[in-house]
Amino acid sequence: MLGGMSPRSYAVQILNFAFIMSTAFMMWKGLSIIADSPSPIVVVLSGSMEPAFQRGDLLFLWNRGYPTAVGDVVVYKVKGKEIPIVHRVIRTFDGGVKPLRLLTKGDNNAADDTELYAPGQSYLDRTTDVIGNVIGYVPGVGYVTIMLSEHPWMKTVMLGLMGLMVVLQRE
Predict the structure, then answer these.
(1) Active site includes 48?
(2) Catalytic entry in 37, 57, 87, 129
(3) I want to staple 141 with a disulfide (CB 3.0 to 4.6 A). Which of 50, 58, 63, 150 is the partner?
């Protein structure tokens, strides 16, 4: 017996933990398909969108058939950079030509985002660069994610505590 638990009970606890993790993953993937976005939920990482969004706000994205217009807040990914950016559309360039081209800017920034785009890029392509339009948010909830990314040791502690809870939990 391991710590008062039979090997069978220990295996059940591990399988329960695996079930919870796989369920969370399936929910994420399902939400990604429904929203037509590779990342349907993102966390604001900087103050560039203050006062509209604060650092740590959790944003919900939608990309399925959603028209993008001046004033909308979008999340986009720049070629060659890992972290997506949350900024407002300040201008569109279409002239009847598809795909829609966008110019963005953070509400708290002095200049537009052309310096943030990939080298040689002067606008965003709505179909390839934009992950989704922001359709809702929950203030401050994502701050845990920021803490975990800024302090990697916290991830180890959290995973250790989760594992310990699985082992110590009794049915």
Answers:
(1) yes
(2) 87
(3) 58
Active-site annotation holds for 32: no
Contacts of 47 (CB under 8 A, 6+ apart): 54, 55, 108
Domain ranges of the chain: 1-35, 38-149
Catalytic residue among 37, 48, 57, 129: 48
Given the residues 6, 22, 39, 113, the one annotated as active site: 113
3-state secondary structure of 42: strand
Q: For domain 38-149, give the fold.
A: Umud Fragment, subunit A (2.10.109)
pLDDT digits (tens, 9 = 90+) for 99-129: 789 999 999 999 999 999 999 899 999 888 9
| Residue 113 falls in the annotated catalytic set | yes
10-40 pLDDT per residue, tens: 788 788 888 888 998 899 898 888 888 888 9
Predicted TM-score (pTM) of this structure? 0.76
Q: What is the DSSP string of 15-29?
A: HHHHHHHHHHHHHHH
